[in-house]
Write a structure and sequence with these properties.
globular, three-stranded antiparallel sheet, alpha+beta, disordered C terminus, single chain, about 475 residues
Length: about 475
Amino acid sequence: MSKKKNKANKVKTSFASGYDAVASVGKRKAASPILKNEDEFLHGQQRKAMIGTGQTLYRNFSMVAWAVRKHLDYNTDFNFQVRSENEELNDQIELLMKVFSRPHNCDSSQRFTFSQMIRTAEMRHILDGDFLFLKRTNGSLTAVEGDLMQTPDDAEPAEKWFNGCRVNNDGRPLQWGLHARERYGRYKFLRRVPAKNLVHLASFDRFDQVRGVSPLAAAYNSFQDVYEGVDYALAKMKVEQLFALVISSANANGTGEYTRNGDGTYDVDFGKGPIKMEMDQDDTAQFLTSDNPGSNTQDFISLVLSMAIKALDLPINFVDESRTNFFGSRAAWMLYDRSCKAKRDVVLESLRRITVWKLQQWIISGLLVLPDGMTVNDVPFEWVHRGMPWWDPVKEISGDVMAIQAGLDNPYRICKERGRGEFDENLKQIAKAKEAAELLGIQLSFIPPEVEENPEDPDTQEDDV
């Protein structure tokens, strides 16, 4: 038996009773058998480098900026609603939240509204990995970006610090080390802040993880490669725009808009546009001409981008709407919306903690007086996502009405999912509109007219994708 055949038998035998994924046969990079806390894979300068990579790509590559903005559109737009049986109490709390949401009340820098703070905080969470809100005694919030959370220099060896967060034996945060930026990339330690005074906006993939990691980390290399590749393709395209008529001539003293150097070389200035060149018989000039970028390159760039934006679960037809028809677009959106549930929950938890803190402050200051026997924990409130409006109102509203009549859904949930406000408030406004119309002698009808189906409507045809 040859050595080659004997080696093949050994490899086959090694796979017989184990996992191929852990077997290294030279075909792929071997996985490390050393398992560590997730925070040990990204700490110190490495974490700063990761944050810097995300910020640079967001500034310079429109595809990254678009992907982040699209994520924010679907995961940071909420309405505050109080749902107690006391309508007067509901209106009072909602008014207090509306006043707090103004820049000079909610933001210690007095630049952002509360909704803008939530959107920007989630942006920093996605790009930097995590974000902190510092709850101030004056009732405002201070933003703390990811690179400002660092382990203080006076940390004791017995203390458990992970990238700026001190935890107990159970992994629960106890303190955060807050820093301020100085010139030339330096940082100045400010103070240790108890974790109870901070709201941590982050998503975790492991139970022992303390600091968040950007979901875009797995896509940064792909985004950067495409960004650089597009730059190179554009540079090549610019060169190809330079045209010249090349004539090989026996005339050694040919005239043209060029200068022949003493060493036999030519200096040609293309800044004047297309020119005519007369060259010596044995001299030639060649210029780049090609299909740039070629169709294969374009397809590959599109493939890489489609994989990269999957880091945020975004479907490729969000980038290029021509890739699918109406039904394909709606199916892609429904799958993406389902993936947003966990992302919104992260933002909602931060909103819940801030709301409870504000309710406590309003009660202590006397701005809010709860009914006898009612505590902060008894106040039923909700941050409601604005939802998605109807794509095809006539058909979808009819479907929603049929679902209600069949007991498969209810008006409250449909109003919430469609972003149409509160059902009770809608009824009040309808009654108000009827009353106003009657005073003016106008008859309002809320029965929709029958719509005749158009057999040639492309949306009614069978999906061929």
